[in-house]
């Protein structure tokens, strides 16, 4: 499982490096576009947690209620 999450973390990092700040749903769509293994949100959450723990991501929160959004970007 560590290998899978590490691989996903690398894909997330590459996406953010190439495209800049991106929301959770968009990252999920891009990273899992060719997979149907299930549990995508959980796996993506673990990959994002990995990058956050390493201090590589910034989290941008905006809105409230149904308009609440979380966006991730690489730390500068």
From TrEMBL:
UniProt-listed InterPro entries: DUF2582, WH-like_DNA-bd_sf
The protein's name: ArsR family transcriptional regulator
Species this protein is from: Candidatus Wallbacteria bacterium GWC2_49_35
